[in-house]
Amino acid sequence: MGIRNHLFHAEHCYYVRAYCHLSKGYRNFGIGRMLEAEVLPSPSMREIKKHAPEEFASDIGDFEWRDMVNIRFRANPDLPEEAQQALRLDFNLDADDTLSLRCRKALIYYTKRRFSLIDPEFNLPRWIPHSVTPDDDEKGE
Length: 141
Hints:
alpha+beta; three-stranded antiparallel beta sheet
């Protein structure tokens, strides 16, 4: 069993998704806030068996990273109609006029924030979160 971490970029920063032994769960760690880091050799199965199980954590139990969701957004109805029409033209909207995105459950927060940015011209968010549903078709890789 290998220990795997995941690197991702969100909100102009890089993050590492890894198990936190202090909070006993998987967390996103901002690389810019890390004061030091060390790459350790992968432990052998003998070493893993010799220590407490919680000392080694794989990503196998990180369901929020593995599970995918569908997030749907609607163009903000408070935007002028021409701005809403521009969003319709720029994005491939569903038949019910929503934008559907597939993302990891662990990244819902970042995805919602990205699509809730304020339009500088109208001082309103371009998109309004509509729904989040599990993606039952397949798991993330």
